[in-house]
Amino acid sequence: MSSLSLKPLSVSTFTSVNPKGNLPPRCKSHYQTERGHQFDVGDTFFRRESATARDLGVLSAALYRNTTGSLRVLDAMCGCGIRSLRYLAEAEADSVVANDANVDYREVILGNLSSVSSSSRWEVNHLPATRLLAECYVRKDYFDLIDVDSFGSGSSYLRVALDAVKLGGLLYITSTDGLSSGGHRPQQSLAAYGAYVQPLPYCNEIGLRMLIGGAVREASVLGYHVVPLFSYYSYHGPVFRVLLQVKRGKSPSSRYYSFISYCNQCGNSQAFSWNELGEISCPCSTNVSRSLMVSGPLWTGPLHNAHHLTEMMSLAELWGWLGDGEGQNLEKLLKLMIDESDPKLPVGYLNADEIASRGKLNLPPLSAIMNSLYEEGYAVSRSHIASNAIKTDCPMVDCVRIVKQLQQPAEMSSCH
Ligand SMILES: C[S@@+](CC[C@H](N)C(=O)[O-])C[C@H]1O[C@@H](n2cnc3c(N)ncnc32)[C@H](O)[C@@H]1O
Ligand SMILES: [Zn+2]
């Protein structure tokens, strides 16, 4: 196991921390293939379903390298090392520090990284991520991309990861805290992210907004601000992942760090800034205090940066990732995310089942509802988070009315 000295990591440091001696006993090999790379997962924690999350990270890393000319990566919880391998081979990282607290993974990681690159570009560590990140910060060894693929809320890594990332650099963070995003543990979400979260119909979008909001708060303590380049929910887990760009200075506006209200009576959602807190109400009634659920503060801005996603799409196409069998889902996902990036779209989405039950309707296809909303001048898109939902700035009450109108001609023609 390596011990880090207080000096910037360098080529010679990499060599010195890659000894093959004193390795733990070799575990059984289990080979997998991802984007043409064969690698061993041994007995490490590995999820094939996370391949798309790795695709998104690698595309973003490569774009960052193309723009800035440098890419030093810290993969703080690397498992078998597949991300490190892909950052080296596909994003052409200048160097990668692969770390996993579990020293029993060492031989698997070393074998996988050796297969794609000479050891002059990488090193392997087995420290608790917090300690590794803190040590990097202490010796002013900053990284272009820090990937923290953690279990649980991930919030305890935010501050140290922000400390160790370059200004302008990227932070790829993860939460698997589905109970907090579902509003089932408001005290826990308050402790982890500084957000009091109550149950909302679009809880999985809240999971992303809670994680971004937590990073916004931690960054502001340090005098920085963060903006999401993409936010990705995946149902296995569930897993909430966000790629943030870290920027110098306080956020120019606090309008995207605010509160969300949901009215159980009419299904309407609204965002409220801090100075509107005392005026929270719902257009459906003047006396809705019992039916209003308020959560926050959370990130209430766009979940993604459309320009970044468009560049990711172009690069994925260039690399042949869109046309092959593996890439079909990636193409669909990126298109959905680009649509979701419309700044006119507010927080949340309308679930088809909720529209149907509030309107006591059998719903027409979502595409027909979306066309009608669009013709009435509303912003509208699908959600990458919920396939049976619509993102729109149309309030629930108006959406139900529009769907009822949409059904009238069909009902009238069936009378003849
Ligand atoms: C979700 S898995 C990582 C999977 C990997 N990134 C991938 O894409 O296949 C999380 C990893 O973090 C490691 N881990 C857990 N707690 C840690 C800590 N405090 N510091 C560093 N590694 C830790 C676990 O051993 C596990 O391999
Ligand atoms: Zn209402």
State the shape.
globular
Classification by helices and strands: alpha/beta
By CATH, the topology of the largest domain is: Rossmann fold
Strand order of the largest sheet: 5-4-3-6-7-9-8
What series of H and E elements makes up the topology? HEEHEHEHEHEHEHHHEEEEEHHEHHEEH
Task: Describe what this molecule looks like in 3D.
37% of the residues lie in helices and 21% in strands. The protein contains 14 helices and 15 strands. A hairpin with a 4-residue loop joins strand 8 and strand 9. It is α/β, with parallel strands linked by helices and 416 residues long. Residues 1-21 have low confidence and may be disordered. The strands form four sheets. Strands 5-4-3-6-7-9-8 form a seven-stranded mixed β-sheet, with helices on both faces. Strands 11-10-12 form a three-stranded antiparallel β-sheet. The chain binds S-adenosylmethionine (SAM) and zinc ion (ZN). S-adenosylmethionine is lined by residues 44-46, 50, 54, 77-79, 82-83, 99-102, 128-129, 149, 151. S-adenosylmethionine (SAM) binds at residues 44-46, 50, 54, 77-79, 82-83, 99-102, 128-129, 149, 151. This is tRNA (Guanine(26)-N(2))-dimethyltransferase. It comes from Nicotiana tabacum. Belongs to the class I-like SAM-binding methyltransferase superfamily. Trm1 family.
